[in-house]
């Protein structure tokens, strides 16, 4: 299965002009099948959007503002870090308790990570495919509040803070394609390192929707923008503007904060811990290049990598392969290498990672940061979030 996923991913990110020279002859027969599947997928999503457009399928409306964070391609776009960024800001700066609605796909690694990060806070996390039903249960359990009331109160009496457990905002994690729920703000994340692949729809390409879907978005965020050239950023922006010429485009990055060991989560280790070390990056995330590039900036002696498909569940055979690579590095350089994984990998497979002993496993922790660019700043992004609150005083609680 893993080999199949890697082959499909390779095809999806290979330009048409390079297919014959890049893809193995054994895999070329897959292309017509993938193209046919992609065509059927296009018909299906077009029909679904048509049904919603003409009201044959109704949308669920929540009594609180809904902020959707999504993307148009599979994996590695920074959706969950952006969800965490927004939830932290709502909780700590605005004083609003958010409800995060996540599907929990792929072993629920992202949901587990969010639950660990927000443990002991007022942030609620609902996990499951039917996010409307989950939202309804949380809203009935905790109640809800108009977030504008809290914002206005804070402006009038800035030294005081309202502490309420009532839900003020719902955040849809991976919500772009979840069109059954009405939203007040649609944010689309774009991976600067691999934005559109071969520009084809799934499964022939990486696109979950046509690029024209940017017309539905209220804001776009180019993630990992610090890892690519200005020319690459200009090309990405031009593609977005073709579908929505007025959309504000922000830039974001992941800022490494510290490491922790798999058996001592609470003990923070400085980033310098990998300096002058032999490092093996092991990841099953959507954008493994971003991890490798950030580790390389920390001054290691050498960086090797083992990449798996997004959400891959590590198995015993994977652990054997990783240990074999580690032994090879140890023999080559004469010192014991360390393994670096992401938090997402840790939360998905924390137990099985213990099988890598006696080698040390370090978990890299990062936070999303909005980068100022061409007038689109972090303050401007937060202002956009506030504007999405709108007027919700008389909004009915509709769950159809």
Write the layout of secondary structure elements.
Blueprint: H1 2-12, H2 19-22, H3 30-53, E1 66-71, H4 79-94, E2 97-102, H5 109-117, E3 124-127, H6 131-142, H7 147-156, E4 167-173, E5 185-191, E6 219-223, H8 230-243, E7 249-261, E8 264-269, E9 278-283, H9 288-296, E10 302-307, H10 316-333, E11 338-342, H11 343-349, E12 360-371, H12 378-387
Parallel strand pairs: 1-4, 1-5, 2-3, 2-4, 5-6, 6-7, 9-10, 9-11, 11-12
Antiparallel strand pairs: 7-8, 7-12
- Which quaternary structure do these chains form? single chain
Elements, N to C (H/E): HHHEHEHEHHEEEHEEEHEHEHEH
The CATH class label of the largest domain is Alpha Beta
SS strand fraction: 15-25%
Cα separation of the termini? 38 Å
Q: Look up the CATH topology of the largest domain.
A: Rossmann fold
Provide the residue-averaged pLDDT: 92
Number of discrete helical segments: 12
Largest sheet, described in full? Answer: 12 strands, mixed
Defining key terms:
about 35% helix; 12-stranded mixed sheet; Rossmann fold; alpha/beta; 2 domains; about 400 residues; 12 strands; globular
Task: Provide an overview of this structure.
- There is one protein chain.
- With 400 residues, the protein is α/β, with parallel strands linked by helices.
- It has two domains: 66-248 and 379-387, 3-Layer(aba) Sandwich (Rossmann fold); 256-368, Rossmann fold, CATH 3.40.50.
- Helices cover 36% and strands 21% of the residues.
- The protein contains twelve helices and twelve strands.
- Strands 1, 2, 3, 4, 5, 6, 7, 8, 9, 10, 11 and 12 form a twelve-stranded mixed β-sheet that branches.
- α5 (109-117) links the parallel β2 and β3.
- α5 (109-117) packs across α11.
- It is globular and about 65 Å long.
- The protein starts with a helix and ends in a 13-residue tail after the last helix.
């Amino acid at each position: 299965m893993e080999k199949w996923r890697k082959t499909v991913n390779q095809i999806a990110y290979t330009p048409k002009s390079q297919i014959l020279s890049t893809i193995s002859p054994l895999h070329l027969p897959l292309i017509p099948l993938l193209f046919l599947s992609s065509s059927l997928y296009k018909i299906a999503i077009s029909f679904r959007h048509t049904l919603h457009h003409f009201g044959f399928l109704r949308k669920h409306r929540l009594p609180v503002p809904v902020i959707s964070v999504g993307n148009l391609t599979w994996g590695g776009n920074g959706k969950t870090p952006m969800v965490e960024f927004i939830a932290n800001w709502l909780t700590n700066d605005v004083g609003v308790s958010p409800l995060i609605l996540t599907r929990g796909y792929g072993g629920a690694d992202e949901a587990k990570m969010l639950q660990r990060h927000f443990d002991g806070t007022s942030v609620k996390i609902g996990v499951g495919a039917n996010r409307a039903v989950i939202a309804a249960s949380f809203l009935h359990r905790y109640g809800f509040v108009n977030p504008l009331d809290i914002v206005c109160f804070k402006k009038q009496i800035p030294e005081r803070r309202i502490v309420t457990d009532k839900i003020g905002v719902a955040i849809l994690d991976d919500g772009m394609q979840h069109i059954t729920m009405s939203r007040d703000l649609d944010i689309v994340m774009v991976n600067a390192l691999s934005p559109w692949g071969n520009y084809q729809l799934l499964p022939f390409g990486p696109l979950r929707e046509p690029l024209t879907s940017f017309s539905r978005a209220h804001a776009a965020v180019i993630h990992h923008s610090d890892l690519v050239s200005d020319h690459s950023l200009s090309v990405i922006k031009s593609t977005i503007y073709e579908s929505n010429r007025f959309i504000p485009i922000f830039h974001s990055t992941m800022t490494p904060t510290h490491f922790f060991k798999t058996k001592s989560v609470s003990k923070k280790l400085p980033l310098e811990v990998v300096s002058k070390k032999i490092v093996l990056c092991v990841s099953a995330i959507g954008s493994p290049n971003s991890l490798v590039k950030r580790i390389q900036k920390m001054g290691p002696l050498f960086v090797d990598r083992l990449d798996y498909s997004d959400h891959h569940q590590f198995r015993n055979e994977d652990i054997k392969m990783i240990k074999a690579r580690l032994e090879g590095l140890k023999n080559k350089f004469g010192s014991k290498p360390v393994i670096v994984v992401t938090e997402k990998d840790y939360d998905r497979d924390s137990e099985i990672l213990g099988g890598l002993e006696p080698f040390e496993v370090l978990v890299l922790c990062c936070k999303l940061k909005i980068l100022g660019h061409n007038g689109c700043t972090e303050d401007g992004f937060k202002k956009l979030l506030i504007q999405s609150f709108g007027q919700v005083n008389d909004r009915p609680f509709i769950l159809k």
